[in-house]
Design goal:
CATH superfamily: YhcH/YjgK/YiaL
Strand order of the largest sheet: 1-10-5-12-3-2
Number of strands: 12
CATH architecture: Sandwich
Radius of gyration: 15 Å
Number of domains: 1
CATH topology: Jelly Rolls
Distance between the termini: 17 Å
Number of helices: 2
Strand content: over 45%
CATH class: Mainly Beta
């Protein structure tokens, strides 16, 4: 897991062949003006835009998720979003087995750590990062960039 601000995104270009495409899009787009939906960037990289009410920790823990096929770059655009995190290796209670068509698996474990993102900050979740997003109050506008794992350098 990596937490940083968009102004430092260039530091991570070499970690994955798709990160440069993702971060150049994020840094050249008026993110606040984007409408809810999905934007295809090519090479399997897609951006999911949402503007939804925050959840309680309890509600977010019900979707304590991880992915096998995609890396998530989750960017806070507006609001304050808290997320829970735990290493996948430490999770023991599978709630929903892995679904390869939807690329998710849910655990019934509790997060070890909580952290918050504010406008312009992001987190990168790799397949080994189980996460509970969208904890907060009021509307949270965010982007989730799905970057396929298969193209890792």
């Amino acid at each position: 897991m990596i937490i940083d601000t968009l102004k430092n995104a260039e530091r991570y270009y070499t970690l994955h062949s798709g990160f440069k495409t993702a971060f150049e899009y994020l840094n050249s787009t008026n993110l606040a003006a984007l409408e809810n939906g999905v934007i295809e960037l090519g090479d399997g990289i897609r951006v999911i835009v949402s503007n939804d009410p925050g959840r309680t920790r309890e509600a977010a823990a019900k979707i304590f998720e991880c992915h096998n096929q995609n890396i998530d770059i989750q960017v806070c655009i507006h609001g304050l979003e808290t997320m829970g995190w735990k290493p996948r290796a430490d999770c023991q209670q599978v709630e929903v087995p892995y679904n390869p068509e939807k690329d998710y698996m849910f655990y019934n474990d509790e997060p070890d750590t909580y952290f918050s993102l504010k406008n312009g900050q992001y987190v990168i979740f790799f397949p080994e990062d189980v996460h509970a997003p969208m904890i907060g109050e009021g509307l949270i506008k965010k982007l989730v960039v799905k970057v396929p794992v298969y193209s890792i350098l």
